[in-house]
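Case 290 in the screening queue. Each case pairs one protein sequence with one candidate compound; here the compound is adenosine-5'-triphosphate. For every case the pipeline is the same: read the inputs, emit a complex structure as tokens, and attach any notable structural observations.

Predict complex for case 290.
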Amino acid sequence: MQLVEKAPAKINLTLDVIGKRPDGYHEVEMVMTTVDLADRIHLTLRNDRAITVEVDKGFVPGNEQNLAYQAAKLLQDRYAVNSGVHIYIEKNIPVSAGLAGGSTDAAATFRGLNRLWNLDASIDELAEYGAEIGSDVPFCVYGGTAIARGRGEKLEHIPSPPPCWVVLVKPPMGASTKDIYGKLDLKNLKHPDTGAVVDAIRERNFPAICAGLGNAMEDATFGLYPEVKSLKERVKSFGADGVLMSGSGPTVYALLQNESRAERIYNGLKGFVEQVFMVRLLGSGHRHDR
Ligand code: ATP
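Case 290 output:
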């Protein structure tokens, strides 16, 4: 028996860091939404209890370090499942990019194995297990659009923004989220106005969404990788409606409602960066609620 589960990337429309918590994590507030750039997780039932992982690109671990493996192991242990699974990951999302690639693979593994192993877990239960694997996993279990607080695991679902194009550009370096948190200057962060962006989304006011995009981690990433800052300036100069770095970077994205302008930006960037994608936002209809 085999099934395939789609694992979409997320972008941050806002990312705010509120402070550092006694447990060492940072308290965040962010608006995240899923985009139609996705890995595909192929799950094949095994008769023994082994969990094996294979990835179609070399730079992602095909072992117990893989977040999809960890998701499968957690479910197998919790539900005392007697079979195993072979997980084949078709990796399309750039790695260490600020797009939650690993987290969404774990989330899709939870959803897929819930069916393949007939576990009958609710989506809320899967999201709770997800928090044990990583802060962004609960959001990825549901998808759609949400405000995430706490470490990122406390979710408030909201409607999705109006349809638009997203041009994503991932410069050749990877950004380590840990290093970038280490560089954050908590006293001098540029805090986005999360409430204004959420209001703009509810009002389906695309220009106000674009005007409100903000990421408190940009300056720290720009400090480590000045190329990311120049890239953002360049994308802006191409005439995007809104431009922001996603997560801790280094991916920068542009939002546009006009398809031919999005194509122009895509083609302009394609000339000098290898990983450029032009996709659509995934709307509210793509949220998993069961
Ligand atoms: P975030 O936006 O949540 O910070 P990211 O997009 O920056 O995530 P990922 O692509 O999730 O970063 O990968 C970060 C690390 O996780 C990499 O070092 C990679 O080796 C490891 N990893 C484990 N499992 C996976 C997976 N299934 N896909 C990608 N990376 C994985």
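Case 290 observations:
- Residues 2-157 form a domain with the Ribosomal Protein S5; domain 2 fold (CATH 3.30.230.10).
- The radius of gyration is 19 Å.
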